[in-house]
Specification:
428 residues; alpha/beta; 8-stranded parallel β-barrel; 4-stranded antiparallel beta sheet; 15 strands
């Protein structure tokens, strides 16, 4: 039997460009109309690859290619979408093409399929490319860099805004900076403006435990602790300071939402609820997120996660982080963890979120999680397994990666970005 010939298409990036009107994966989970208001007519896929001949040499010039989009990697059954388009490749065989631009139901396709697979065929030929996976779910990443320049986790010379540029260049959609309120009001507004220019969204970090702890207490603890940014507050209470921060950012175009709890313990639930009420009253238009975890990565049980996440069911986004590599658990255990997140979120009619591992446990020597050869940065296959399982089983609104600085410091940034292939929304 004659074997089919493979068209050599090497992925540079395959990313979903979703033209959001806050947001496509809305809290209601209802399809969003993208017509009018200067928006692109539909969401679409922007697909970038390299075209090579059978000898592995680049094919430059104009070529006619047929693109098939499936919801299964094996390509069985009819494709969800197929179209033949002319593409122009450069001298290295690289090209970029927008797919599904005329598909009226593409938003529904994206909502129904967290993963899609793109394969390429030369018409009238038996040559084809292996399917390349893309995710229709926005991806986000953590950073930890003071806006005042006093402290920044990352290589020497990094600043909060220079990191934004690198994160945006990798096509992430959302960033969460743990140190975003360590700076002046001017520095914060400049940071937000830079994020907007980079087409990035920000989840503002209200997860400092002191925010919840002091939200209902009298006095000026938070004002004194955050002296730089509170200098322009004009407030006299902890609650007033929190209201000031929300009012400062709620109307900024880069604002995505608020993280009000990062692995909080159940006994802090009443304080976090008080913080939630303050934030929600000041800004009812953006979601609040609580991110929990499990006691044991080798046993990501539903009951264990419920203990840590159920008390925070008031938040709009409920999620958890799962970091198995180096613990003795396998990357494929992410499926069970993701399923737990999905179950709890849907129980309360909320959106799901999951944070995945982009670090080496050896970078946290005091954790006692692993030692020696067990402590490795996730491989490409492990990263992709975690991503696919999270997208499929958690069905999340957003996927986070922890984190930027550990990945860069490990010398893994290029490999990491290539493996997880983040997306970026198109211009409206």
């Amino acid at each position: 039997m004659k074997q089919p010939r493979y068209l050599h298409v090497i992925s540079l990036s395959a990313l979903v460009l979703v033209c959001f009107l806050w947001p496509l994966h809305a809290l209601s989970q209802e399809p969003v109309s993208l017509r009018g208001a200067g928006a692109e007519p539909y969401p679409h896929i922007r697909f970038s690859s390299t075209l090579l001949n059978e000898d592995g040499k680049p094919l430059a010039g104009f070529h006619l290619l047929t693109f098939n989009i499936h919801d299964r990697e094996d390509g069985r059954a009819d494709p969800l979408w197929t179209e033949t388009l002319p593409v122009e490749t450069d001298e290295n065989g690289r090209y970029t093409v927008d797919l599904m631009t005329s598909a009226a139901d593409v938003a529904e396709v994206f909502n129904a399929h967290p993963l899609l697979y793109v394969s390429t065929i030369i018409p009238a030929s038996s040559s084809f490319s292996r399917a390349q996976v893309i995710t229709t779910i926005p991806q986000a990443i953590y950073q930890d860099c003071n806006l005042d320049g006093e402290s920044c986790s990352g290589p020497a010379g990094d600043t909060a805004t220079s990191q934004l540029d690198k994160i945006a260049a990798a096509n992430f959609y959302v960033v969460l900076n743990y140190s975003v309120f360590w700076g002046t009001q001017t520095e914060l507004l400049a940071y937000a403006a830079r994020a907007n220019a980079d087409k990035l969204k920000i989840i503002w970090t209200f997860n400092d435990p002191d925010f919840a702890k002091y939200s209902g207490k009298s006095g000026k603890y938070l004002i004194n602790d955050y002296g730089e940014i509170s200098a322009t507050c004009g407030c006299s209470t902890n609650k007033g300071f929190l209201q000031y921060l929300v009012n400062l950012v709620k109307d900024l175009p880069a604002t995505y939402g608020y993280n009000i709890g990062d692995e909080p313990t159940p006994n802090t639930a009443s304080n976090v609820k008080n913080l939630y009420d303050i934030v929600r009253a000041a800004d009812p238009n953006h979601p609040e997120m609580v991110n929990a975890t499990w006691d044991n990565a080798n046993n990501p049980s539903l009951s264990d996660l419920r203990r840590y996440l159920d008390p925070f069911r008031f938040a709009q986004i409920l999620g958890a982080d799962y970091y198995p590599i180096g613990t003795g658990a396998t990357a494929s255990d992410t499926a069970a963890a993701a399923s737990d997140v999905h179950t709890i979120a849907t129980t309360y009619g909320k959106s799901a979120e999951i944070a995945l591992q982009a670090f080496n446990w050896n970078q946290y020597p005091g954790s006692g999680v692993c030692s020696g050869s067990q402590c490795t940065y996730p491989t490409t296959r492990q990263l992709q397994t975690m991503l696919k399982d999270a997208a499929t089983d958690a069905k999340p609104k957003i996927i986070f990666w922890y984190d930027y600085w550990d990945t860069v410091n490990a010398g893994q940034w290029t490999n990491f970005v290539s493996a997880i292939n983040p997306q970026h929304p198109c211009e409206r």
